[in-house]
UniProtKB/TrEMBL annotation:
Organism from which the protein derives: Stappia indica
InterPro entries the record matches: Dimeric_a/b-barrel
UniProt name for this protein: ABM domain-containing protein
Length: 198
């Protein structure tokens, strides 16, 4: 899996209610930025003026590009105006997938499957990682993907996208892709469902 980037910003706001509103608006805008994965918005438990934002990106380049836009772009002027002072800001590499935001309206696809006879789990997992790295993570709207092993011996492939429509489109992109075909050659699909978080 490629390195992901986590942006951590600690700051204070003058008007917490207005800051909450502007932060929600900023999230709505930034979700469409290339490479965006998640934005965890924290507020101080003892002081509502204290804020920490954890923003996950697919790459440092995506994080830095977005930081420039948020810092200078007219679309984020209202958000910037609520910030009284910035205590710290930094970008950090993550050698595992960055945290995936789970927001109402995010789409998901859950595929249930078994391994074909004679296929080792390690081989399936390696093929899955290649497929995610080389193809799925590069699709518009993709937010994250996880495998789960159930007690029954079946597996779940859980994909999160920024909408149900995008989740379906990403699933349709599997057809004809060599990395996806290599993964599919190792498994016996049982079911597939789409939905969205509420």
């Amino acid at each position: 899996m490629q390195d992901h980037c986590l942006e951590v910003v600690a700051y204070r706001v003058a008007d917490p209610d207005r800051a909450d509103h502007e932060r929600r608006l900023a999230l709505d805008k930034i979700r469409s930025f290339p490479g965006f994965l998640a934005w965890t918005q924290l507020t101080g438990t003892g002081e509502a003026a204290q804020r920490v934002d954890l923003v996950a990106w697919k790459s440092e380049e995506a994080a830095l590009s977005a930081a420039r836009e948020v810092g200078e772009g007219a679309d984020f002027a209202g958000f910037r105006a609520t910030i009284g002072s910035v205590a710290s800001m930094g970008h950090y590499a993550a050698n595992r997938p960055a945290p995936v935001g789970r927001l109402a309206g995010d789409g998901m696809e859950i595929g249930r499957f078994r391994l074909k006879a004679g296929v080792a789990e390690a081989d399936m997992r390696a093929a899955h990682a290649r497929m995610v790295e080389q193809h799925l993570s590069r699709q518009p709207g993709w937010l994250g993907q996880r495998l789960a092993r159930l007690e029954s011996g079946t597996f779940l492939d859980i994909a999160i996208a920024d909408s149900r429509t995008r989740a379906i489109a990403i699933c349709e992109s599997w057809q004809g892709n060599a990395d996806c075909e290599a993964f599919l050659a190792l498994i016996e699909p049982e079911s597939m469902e789409f939905g969205e978080l509420v």
